[in-house]
UniProtKB/TrEMBL annotation, chain A:
SMART domains the UniProt entry points to: DEXDc2 (SM00488), HELICc2 (SM00491)
Record localization: Nucleus
4Fe-4S in keyword set: yes
InterPro entries assigned to the protein according to its UniProt record, in alphabetical order: ATP-dep_Helicase_C, DinG/Rad3-like, DNA/RNA_helicase_DEAH_CS, HBB, Helic_SF1/SF2_ATP-bd_DinG/Rad3, Helicase-like_DEXD_c2, P-loop_NTPase, RAD3-like_helicase_DEAD
Gene Ontology terms, MF aspect: 4 iron, 4 sulfur cluster binding; 5'-3' DNA helicase activity; ATP binding; damaged DNA binding; hydrolase activity, acting on acid anhydrides, in phosphorus-containing anhydrides; metal ion binding
Organism: Gossypium mustelinum (Cotton)
GO cellular component: nucleus
Biological classification of the source: Eukaryota, Viridiplantae, Streptophyta, Embryophyta, Tracheophyta
Protein name (record): DNA 5'-3' helicase
Co-factor requirement: [4Fe-4S] cluster
UniProt KW Glycosyltransferase keyword: no
Automatic annotation (TrEMBL), chain B:
MF GO annotations: zinc ion binding
GO cellular component assignments: transcription factor TFIIH core complex; transcription factor TFIIH holo complex
Protein's name in the database: General transcription factor IIH subunit
UniProt lineage: Eukaryota, Viridiplantae, Streptophyta, Embryophyta, Tracheophyta
Compositionally biased region (Acidic residues): 13-24
A Pfam family: Ssl1
């Protein structure tokens, strides 16, 4: 269907549209007009992605004089593929209505692991080995060697791509990763490098968060994006954590050992080069004197990682004299590793600011701040000079240099925490030195500065006013939409008491009480007997889950139980079997952990999740030193109270967990918040509005037997056939005519 | 960094005060009354006595609505008149639950009885068998046959519930039986499922495909909640899936299965079937009954081909295998193919019109269509013969008679 939003004709590939999608588009359009940033919350299953894509592409089409690029960031490869598939539908629709002028180029960019078509390379098991395998075949010196010696292996796809040179372009269209690979295979071009090249020309680029947020990667991939771009972060409720992780480094004993080993290998290499061809080292020295800026004219395959600091600072300055010579640099690194391992030997928990750390480093090891700052680039340059291709072997020393550069660059917003052992297991020494970033705005700041509009959107962004403070930006629009439903297909409940009327909670002083554990067990058992197919049960932590399952072990449970573990492969297997059990009508319960992989990325839609039980409030581990340091920083810098942040974080995790069950309007599911703390207003009010609006007052303070009764009635009600479009007074699907009839005014009433 | 050791920052102290806010939640006993609102169905008459409201009008309007919804879909479609239906009753542990009063299984048994009677009334040419699932095993309670009494008696004897339920076992069993049915018969399974899971020995998806291949139409009525596998089964085999809200809803749902369903298109080939119309034996004649294997006196039917005696019609002759029916049975099935068109409602002004004096009385029962207060009551008119009927006659004509007296009398005169 086609309709007008203010002055933009929107092409929407479906015949009907949800009212909230329409509202969403209006807000989006205003953001684009204002060239500002925005925050939008809309429940999952309401077609966020397609609304977003169709508005932005239509906006570009209506304003051909100012071309805009859409950069769409997703969290997983799976989501990337889904987005591209939707875009494809939209694109076909637009071409049908507008003809060839609507043609765009849209590609997805992912790591080599997902794009490589060379059978020998892609067979490697993890991402780093695929990267290294590719470099072994495509690095410039390997290819130079191969031109002399035909026995040296090369990647034929890359060679073909190089030969085609500027002729290697993708014709306009929408390419999913799959299609990109197929295209590459057919033409014999390397899809990865082709995609990397085409990113500059594409109208729509879909890739992972890291390509924009992690400065190491962003420097290469996203450097050339124009300012007139719209950046979308989808499913962005955890964006602050992603930002923080991008700038945090942890060093363990193993890292240091690996680094020492790496250093000795590098020194061997240097010796070898000195013996055979000293001129290369000298050439590098000369280049470093002139500054790192010249690095730009290295061939594209060679620049694999870039500086984690802000590039401008570094490129202007020349590399300090004491690390220009390769041997000197190695000495510096050795001293740094030694110093770090000395620090790790500590018996106590230590916390330090980067400034203090640098000061002590320079007094003990004689390394000053400026030297530290350059470590990463210097190592990078050295490895290129030494023609090292198996980069996956050198991850440890890279981590150390990454750490050094971060410490050297940022004085604020970080802290260094050394813990001699894991808090939970004080008997096993496992020293770890963590450089943790507290300020999410550091990593995302360049994105906000550089691009015209940044859209942050997700199903759960409540409370919406906290995000601008955490990320330190000023949105022009921030809104939360509710879901218009033909029937009350979600049924949230707050369960505060067991059937014996004793309160249940995972509060620290109550959680190990046998009565509470028994009540939780009873709740699950009784629910299992009334809910068909799949049930998902989220716990606050692995340790609590283990404990509680052990306690329940005696009682027999009707359904099959699957448990998420920290092992990814095991979890995937458990999930597969869980799905099979649900499909075959056996029914199953999946035990999982809030903040785990399952809570973040796996959907339990339709019969895979008829009920979610959230046992307890998923607060973070509040005694963790990193969290305490971060809370302190947040309080001092952004005036966010500790309690507020913790509650916000816990509730967003809880909402994320329960949001897994409902993925479309035809779906239905129940959510049980099993903790008495949820009935308190300050906790409850932080849930997203689409859950709150269905949370009736009567369901706020339930005991197990009452919840059971409600569940029975709800399931029966939901099993009745229903009318998809909704009755006349409660329209949830709008056709084109209805949409045209609706003025702006009435639409606003419907939105939140 | 030692201040964090003893403290937990999640709003510690104030948490203990319990906000036991009084919510307007109704107790369970109250809720049943709010739903029914039984006090509203009472009214006071002139002498101050309480008596139930005459809710016939309501009943009529509901009936009209149902009729309309049925007729809208009922264009001339082919229907399977000769049905071979297996009723699968889940006797697992879940069937003994008490959420239906007195228990699920009691309610099921009660309505299965009504259903079987209604089924044979509407489909005299069809046959029924009963299968039960108990302890994960499916048993054939009664073989497929045409006698309602024998099924009902057998069912009422076996109503204990225990163990798990297995959909696959039941389907396998039924599939085995129904595969032997001649091709003109329509194979159907109606599953009354109380459990919320199924414990199967193998892959149920294979079994579902097998049922689909042997063209068995599987329908499920659930008693607790929607189950994916049941829905899948019904979708695959062209059946209907419904979940009962309460007892009356359950009755409605099960009775929906009494009229013959539309035939599966690919399967609906026209076929000629050999049938025998046996004569009723003379009173007092003694013969050996072929179904009971003993000598019986009087009241039997004699197969026209082999002269064996059968006790009831319709049935299949035990000796020569001929289908034995009587002509009223055929006639009763006939109306499913040619239903009477629904009657139109008459506006009251039309009724008051002095021009059509004749039509002041119902053509069926000859009662006046006017109310005691001489106000026009509700009336309807047959679109073909333009005769007027009262609502009671309308229901009688459509539900039981299946002939319009007006049209029939026109043809005679």
């Amino acid at each position: 269907m086609k309709f007008l939003i203010e002055d933009v004709t929107v092409y929407f590939p479906y015949d009907h549209i949800y009212p909230e999608q329409y509202c969403y588009m209006i807000e989006l359009k205003r953001t684009l007009d204002a060239k500002g940033h925005c925050l939008l919350e809309m429940p999952t299953g309401t077609g966020k992605t397609i609304a977003l894509l169709s508005l932005i592409t239509s906006y570009c089409l209506s304003k051909p004089q100012s071309p805009m690029k859409l950069i769409y960031c997703t969290r997983t490869v799976h989501e990337m593929e889904k987005t591209l598939a939707e875009l494809k539908i939209l694109h076909n629709y637009q071409i049908k209505h507008l003809g060839p002028q609507a043609r765009i180029l849209a590609i997805g960019l992912s790591s080599r692991k997902n794009l490589c078509v060379n059978p020998t390379v892609v067979a490697a098991e993890n991402r780093d080995s695929v990267d290294a395998g590719c470099r072994k075949l495509t690095a410039s010196w390997v290819r130079a060697l191969a031109s002399e010696n035909p026995d040296v292996a090369m990647c034929e796809f890359f060679e073909n791509y190089e030969k085609a040179a500027s002729a290697a372009v993708l014709p306009p269209g929408v390419y999913t990763l799959q299609e990109l690979r197929a295209f590459g295979k057919e033409k014999g071009w390397c899809p990865y490098f082709l995609a990397r090249h085409m990113v500059q020309f594409a109208n729509v680029v879909v890739y992972s968060y890291q390509y924009l947020l992690d400065p190491k990667v962003a420097g290469i991939i996203s450097k050339e994006m124009q300012k007139e771009s719209v950046v979308v972060f989808d499913e962005a409720h955890n964006i602050d954590n992603v930002c923080i992780e991008a700038l945090s480094v942890s060093v363990r004993r193993k890292t240091l050992e690996g680094a020492t080993w790496n250093l000795s290998r590098i020194s061997q290499e240097i010796d070898r080069f000195k013996a055979t061809d000293a001129s290369i080292l000298r050439a590098e020295y000369n280049r470093l004197v002139e500054g790192l800026a010249l690095r730009g004219n290295l061939p594209i395959t060679d620049n694999w990682l870039s500086n984690p600091a802000l590039p401008d600072d570094i490129l202007k300055e020349a590399v300090p004299g004491n690390i220009r010579r390769a041997e000197h640099f190695l000495h510096v690194l050795r001293r740094l590793v030694q110093y770090l391992s000395g620090r790790l030997d500590t018996e106590n928990v230590e916390k330090e600011s980067p400034v203090g750390f640098v000061a002590s480093l320079s007094s003990h090891a004689g390394i000053d701040q400026k030297t530290l700052k350059f470590c990463y680039d210097r190592l990078h340059s050295l490895m290129l000079t030494l023609e090292i291709t198996d980069t996956d072997e050198f991850l440890h020393i890279q981590t150390i240099c990454d750490f050094a550069t971060l410490v050297g660059t940022y004085g604020r917003g970080f802290s260094i925490i050394i813990e001699p052992f894991d808090e939970r297991m004080p008997h096993i020494p496992d020293p770890v030195l963590q450089l943790s970033c507290h300020d999410a705005s550091l990593a995302i700041k360049p994105v906000f500065d550089r691009f015209q509009s940044v859209l942050i959107t997700s199903g759960t962004l409540s409370p919406i006013d906290l995000y601008p403070r955490l990320l330190n930006f000023h949105p022009v629009v921030s809104r939360s939409f509710t879901m218009s439903l033909t029937r009350d297909c979600i049924c949230p409940m707050v369960l505060t008491r067991g059937s014996d009327q004793l309160p249940v909670s995972t509060k620290f002083d109550m959680r190990s009480d046998p009565g509470v554990v028994r009540n939780y067990g009873k709740l699950l058992l009784e629910m299992v007997s009334v809910v068909p197919d799949g049930i998902v049960c989220f716990f606050v932590s692995y340790s609590y889950m283990d404990g509680i399952i052990n306690t329940w072990n005696d009682s027999g449970i009707l359904k099959l139980v699957f448990i998420e573990t920290q092992d990814v492969v095991e979890t995937t297997l458990a999930l597969d079997n869980y799905r099979r059990a649900c499909d075959s009508g056996r029914g199953a319960v999946f035990f999982s952990v809030a903040r785990g992989k399952v809570a973040e990325g796996i959907d339990f839609d339709r019969h895979y999740g008829r009920l979610v039980i959230m046992i307890g409030v998923p607060f973070q581990y509040t005694l963790s030193k990193i969290l305490l340091a971060r809370l302190e920083y947040l309080r001092d810098t952004f005036q966010i109270k500790e309690g507020d942040f913790l509650t916000f974080d816990a509730l967003r995790q809880a909402a994320q967990c329960v949001g897994r069950v409902i993925r479309s309007k035809a779906d239905y599911g129940m959510m049980i918040f099993a903790d008495k703390r949820y009935s308190r207003h300050d906790k409850r009010s932080k849930l997203p509005s689409w859950i709150l609006s269905h949370l009736q007052d009567a369901n706020l303070n339930l005991s197990t037997d009452m919840a059971l009764h409600i569940a029975r009635e709800f399931l029966k009600k939901m099993a009745q056939p229903y009318d998809k479009t909704g009755s006349s007074d409660k329209k949830t699907l709008l056709s084109q005519e209805e949409l045209e009839k609706l003025g702006d005014g009435s639409m606003h009433e419907m939105s939140y | 960094m030692n201040n964090g050791a003893g403290r937990r920052i999640n709003g510690g102290a104030e948490e203990d005060e319990d906000e036991d806010d009084v919510n307007g939640d109704l107790d369970a006993w109250e809720r049943t009354y709010t739903d029914e609102r039984s006090w509203e169905s009472l009214q006071e008459d002139e002498s101050g006595m309480l008596r139930p409201i005459d809710n016939q009008a309501l009943y009529h309007s509901q009936y009209r609505q149902r009729l309309r919804s049925l007729s809208s879909t009922a264009a001339r479609i082919q229907k399977g008149l000769i049905r071979y239906l297996y009723i699968v009753i889940d006797l697992s542990r879940a069937a003994s639950e008490m959420d239906f009063r007195p228990s699920r299984i009691a309610v099921i048994a009660k309505h299965v009885e009504t259903f079987i009677r209604e089924f044979f009334y509407q489909n005299p040419l069809s046959q029924v068998g009963i299968v039960t699932i108990k302890d994960g095993v499916a048993h054939c309670l009664t073989d497929i046959g045409g006698s309602p009494e024998s099924h009902i008696n057998a069912l009422m004897k076996k109503l204990e519930c225990s163990g798990d339920s297995s959909l696959q076992n039941a389907l396998d069993l039924v599939d085995g039986y129904l595969n032997q049915i001649p091709s003109y018969g329509h194979r159907e399974v109606l599953i009354l499922y109380s459990a919320l899971s199924t414990c199967d020995p193998g892959d149920i998806m294979d079994t579902i495909q097998k049922c689909r291949k042997s063209k068995i139409r599987c329908s499920v009525i659930g008693l607790a909640a929607e189950m994916f596998i049941c829905k899948h089964l019904c979708q695959e085999t062209g059946g209907t899936y419904s979940v009962a809200l309460d007892e009356s809803h359950f009755k409605e749902l099960i009775l929906e299965h009494a009229p013959p369903p539309p035939a599966i298109a690919e399967f609906a080939v026209a076929n000629l079937i050999k049938m025998g119309f046996p004569q009723r034996a003379a009173e007092g004649s003694i013969s050996i009954c072929s179904c009971h294997k003993e000598a019986k006196v009087g009241a039997g039917y004699t197969c026209p081909r082999c002269k064996a005696r059968a006790c009831e019609l319709p049935t299949e002759c035990c000796v020569c295998g001929l289908t034995l029916v009587s002509s009223p049975h055929l006639a009763r099935s006939y109306h499913h193919l040619f239903p009477i068109a629904p009657f139109d409602e008459v506006t009251s002004s039309h009724l008051n019109n002095p021009n059509c004096k004749l039509q002041r009385n119902c053509f069926g029962c000859q009662q006046s269509l006017l109310d005691p207060g001489n106000k026009p009551g509700p009336a309807i008119v047959c679109p073909k013969c333009k005769r007027y009927f009262c609502l009671d006659c309308d229901i009688y004509i459509h539900e039981s008679l299946h002939n319009c007296p007006g049209c029939d009398s026109l043809r005679h005169s």
